[in-house]
Amino acid sequence: xxxxxxxxxxxxxxxxxxxxxxxxxxxxxxxxxxxxxxxxxxxxxxxxxxxxxxxxxxxxxxxxxxxxxxxxxxxxxxxxxxxxxxxxxxxxxxxxxxxxxxxxxxxxxxxxxxxxxxxxxxxxxxxxxxxxxxxxxxxxxxxxxxxxxxxxxxxxxxxxxxxxxxxxxxxxxxxxxxxxxxxxxxxxxxxxxxxxxxxxxxxxxxxxxxxxxxxxxxxxxxxxxxxxxxxxxxxxxxxxxxxxxxxxxxxxxxxxxxxxxxxxxxxxxxxxxxxxxxxxxxxxxxxxxxxxxxxxxxxxxxxxxxxxxxxxxxxxxxxxxxxxxxxxxxxxxxxxxxxxxxxxxxxxxxxxxxxxxxxxxxxxxxxxxxxxxxxxxxxxxxxxxxxxxxxxxxxxxxxxxxxxxxxxxxxxxxxxxxxxxxxxxxxxxxxxxxxxxxxxxxxxxxxxxxxxxxxxxxxxxxxxxxxxxxxxxxxxxxxxxxxxxxxxxxxx
Length: 492
Description:
The protein is an alpha/beta fold and 492 residues long.
C-alpha cells in the first residue's frame, strides 16, 4: 500500500528554525497516526508506562521515572514470531512509529511483534522537575541502553517470550546509533540491528556537516549545480555585508525579522536561521518536509532576480509561508531562554543540547573554508553555551567526546550483525560507517545514491528513487538472513 512519506525526523542543531519544524512534523505524524487508527482494530495497539530505575548504575538510588512504550500486536504470529524493536531518539515517541515505515512493512510481512520505547527525559518519559540541572545527570545514552535492556525484560515477561522470539532493533539518526550500540553492548538481547543515518562517531567540531551541505548543493542528480552553490555563497556574503554596512533595517524588513538585531549574537542568529533553511533542505531532501535541493537551486539560480541577495530573500519568504511563521525570530536571548526552560513541556532542545555537551559534540560550525555560509555559529559559541546552561567547563568537552568514542568504538566498532544505512546526500554520513568490514562483517554498509537522512525508514512512495527501492530490498535481505540464521541456531 502506498503511503505519504512522513519523516522520522530528528534535528541536531541549535537553530530554532529546525526545532520549530521538528515540532510541526511531529504534529503531522500524530495526525497521520490517528487517521491510520481509524482504519484498523485499535485493540492491537497497546500504550503504557514502564517504571524505570532513574539510575541503573547506582544501587543506592531507588527513584524511578515513567517511560512511555507502544506495542502493535496486529501482525504478530504467536507465540514464536520475531520482535521488532523501534528505538526512539531525542523527541517524543509517536504512534506513527509502530504504524508506518519500512520496519512496519517488514513486521507485517514477517509476522513480528512491534514494540517501541520513548527515550528517557523526552516526551512524557520524565519526572516533574526532570530538566533541572541536578536531575539531568541521569540523562545519557548509557542509561538509555539500560532502559532498553529493562524494556526487553518487561516485554518478554508480558508476552511470555522465549529464546525462539528473535529480536531485531531499528533506529534512525541518534536512535540509529543507539540501535548499533544496543546490539554491541547487549548482544544476548538483540540478534541484529539496523542503524539508519547513525552518527556513531562523536565529534566536537562537526564542520564537515556544512562541507557536505555545500557539496550536495552541487550534486546534479538531485537538482544541484556549482552555479547554485556559487549563488548561495554570494548571497550570504551580501547578507553579511548588509548587516555590517549600515543596512540592518533593510535586512530586518527583507527577511521579515520579528525584531531588530540588538547584538552581534542576534545578527549571528539571523544568518544561522537562514542557513538552517539550506541545512534542513539538504538533510531531508525530497522527504516532504522542506524545499528540495532542486527547488532551492531553481530559486538561487533564477535570473529574474538579478542579485543573489534577492534570491535569498525570496527563499526565506517562501520558507516562512511554508511553516506559517509570521516573522523570523532572531533573538539570541530567546534562544537562551528556550534552552534554559526546565519545565517538562520542552520538546527536547534543552535535553539534546545537554547530551551534546556531555557525550557527543556534533556542533555544526562554519569554521571550515568549504562552508557555503558566513558568520554562522562557531565552535566557541556552542561550547560557551555548555558552560552557561549546564555549568560544564568548555575544556572538559574533548574528554567527554573521547570517552564516548572509546566506550562504543566510534567508527571502528567491531560489532557483528549491525547494518549501517546512509544516503550520500546526508551530511550525517560523515560520522557513520559507510565501508564494509572484513570476514563475517564484510556486508555491513549500504550507501544510497541521492538519498537523504533516514530516507530508508519512511513508507514507500511512487516517487522513490531506484537506489532507495534497492536499498530497502537489501535491508530486508539482511533481516531475513538474520531471522533464518537465528532460527537455525535455535535448533542446535
